[in-house]
Amino acid sequence: FKYTPNQSGGYTQSTVSADFGRPGEIAIDGAGNLYVGDGSRGIVYKETFNPTTGGYTQTSLFNSSNSAAGAAFGVAVDTAGDIFIANTGGVIFKETPNGPGGYIETRLLNIGGNVTSIAVDGAANLYVADAGTGQLYKLTPSNGTYTQTTVISGYSNLNGVSVDSAGTVYASTTSSSSVLRAAPQADGSYPLPTVV
Q1: I want to staple 40 with a disulfide (CB 3.0 to 4.6 A). Which of 17, 21, 109, 115 is the partner?
Q2: Please, which residues have CB within 8 angstroms of residue 95's CB and are 6 or more apart in sequence?
Q3: What are the counts of helices (DSSP H) followed by strands (DSSP E) for the chain?
């Protein structure tokens, strides 16, 4: 669903699409296009926004069965329009825009585990939550590879992950029904998270 602010201070609900199996994460780019990870189908859909009609056109952007085992749950988009996809096999992909409606797919790395959520910050650092091991990692790009840093550990069933402009990381955990917050130190390390 989409909720649009109205003049009364409330929101007007509209349906973007009802054609999903088990939708997971949603990301949005600067043009208002949506990217939805469908875990049961292993597909990431793009919902292209039409500013004239206010509607959306659905296309299949990524299919796990064509790339690697694991359902595509996590999806994030950066300011350049690159889409990052994490599947439950621990594989992370990048979809780089290439001409009208086209993308170049790159397999970035395989961290293993059961990755269910991914976020990206303004410096192209990735943050991935592993629901199986209870770890949340920061992946820093460096000369074509990534350096892995543990942000949060010891919490089972980590799911949603988000990062703000200051680099503070937030994650939800269904095991304790809480949201965790981890702010980076001056040396780039992360202390024990606090509950929001």
Answers
A1: 21
A2: 61, 62, 82, 83, 84, 85, 103, 104, 105, 106
A3: 0, 18
Instruction: Indicate the pTM of the whole model.
Output: 0.90
Closest among 62, 27, 57 to 41, alpha carbons compared = 62
Cα-only R_g, the chain: 17
**Of 91, 130, 147, 35, nearest to 138 (Cα)?**
147
Please compute, for residue 53, the number of CA atoms within 13 A of its CA located in the half-sphere on the CB side: 7
Say which residue the tokens 């192209």 belong to: 124
CB atoms within 10 A of CB 148: 14
The enclosing H or E element of 37 equals strand 34-38
- 106 in Cβ contact with 94 (< 8 Å): yes
- Burial label for 160, CB within 10 Å (0-12, 13-18, 19+), is middle
Q: Write the burial class of residue 16 (CB in 10 Å: 0-12 exposed, 13-18 middle, 19+ buried).
A: middle
